[in-house]
Amino acid sequence: MKTKFSWRAFISFGLTWAILVILVSGVILYVAPPGRYAHWVNWELAGFSKEGWQAIHTLFSLGFIVLSIFHLFSVNWKSFVSYIKSKSTKGFNKKKELLFSIIAILVFFFGTIFAVPPFQTVMDLGEAATESWEKTEERAPVPHAELLTLAELAHQLDIESVEEITRKLDSHKIAYKDTHTQTLQEIGEANDSTPLEIYEIIEKKPANQGQGMGVGRKTIEDFSKELNKSTDELMQILEKNNIEAKATETLRTIGENNDLPPRDVYKLLSE
């Protein structure tokens, strides 16, 4: 004997699954790496990229809202209307609970807006977890470097000719179409690789050139040895140009802290 399809049960099950998916995806997004790193190394978890988890979280949240509306208006509408009518006639008997719920909502809202503990603490923990993914040796030369074309990357790294980059890519059999329109991310996808791996090929210098680091990854101390100048001398140059820096900081970090490209900092030091 066939049983009648129960919309109440269907919606209840749907709400349960949606809550579970929203919970899992929410936790993953809470600790996921920042976009600049996720795109740079093609980060994935359980086969999904960060954008994939964001899409899952968003769509299941939307599904939860839709099911909640159906749950209210199609399954419990009569009970809901009856409840409202009875309460509007008799008046609300739970005034204390109503007041405390409003206060709780306002505390959460303004606590979040004004970034006070413990609300800001929760956000700080998430930020710490997010930043823990990024390793120093895997950092991009500039934020969102995966969106740079080969020509833009050559300019960013202060390379005289983009042909120097294309020669390295050709020697590693990396396919590319155009040096002025195709980004590192697109080249990586076309070669089943990551922007980081493409960049490492470009950035790597021949063994006879000694240094293997890009300009942005070198510290003031590295340059003092390379340029045969003392660290204090280089620090004085930066100070005269109103650039705040520490001898142990990389040119990338110094540039970011002073809103300058690493190549501009390098030019000052090498003059």
Structural account:
- This protein has 14 helices and two strands.
- The protein has 271 residues and is mainly alpha-helical.
- The protein folds into four domains: 1-91; 93-134, no CATH class; 138-204; 215-270, no CATH class.
- It has a two-stranded antiparallel ribbon with strand order 1-2.
- The longest helix is centred in the first third of the chain and has 26 residues, at 50-75.
- The chain is elongated and about 85 Å long.
- Residues 207-213 have low confidence and may be disordered.
Secondary-structure blueprint of this entry?
Layout: H1 7-31, H2 35-40, E1 44-45, E2 48-49, H3 50-75, H4 77-90, H5 95-113, H6 119-131, H7 150-156, H8 162-171, H9 184-190, H10 195-203, H11 220-226, H12 231-240, H13 251-257, H14 262-270
Antiparallel strand pairs: 1-2
Helix pairs in contact: 1-3, 8-10, 9-10, 11-12, 13-14
Give a quick summary of the entry:
This protein is mainly α and 271 residues long. It has helices at residues 7-31, 35-40, 50-75, 77-90, 95-113, 119-131, 150-156, 162-171, 184-190, 195-203, 220-226, 231-240, 251-257, 262-270, and strands spanning 44-45, 48-49.
Overall pLDDT score: 84
Order of helices and strands: HHEEHHHHHHHHHHHH
Structural class: mainly alpha
Counted beta strands? 2
Uncertain segments are 207-213
Strand-residue proportion: under 5%
Strand order of the largest sheet: 1-2
Radius of gyration: 28 Å
Count of discrete domains? 4
Distance between the termini: 90 Å
Largest sheet: 2 strands, antiparallel
The total count of helices amounts to: 14
Provide the helix percentage. Answer: 55-70%
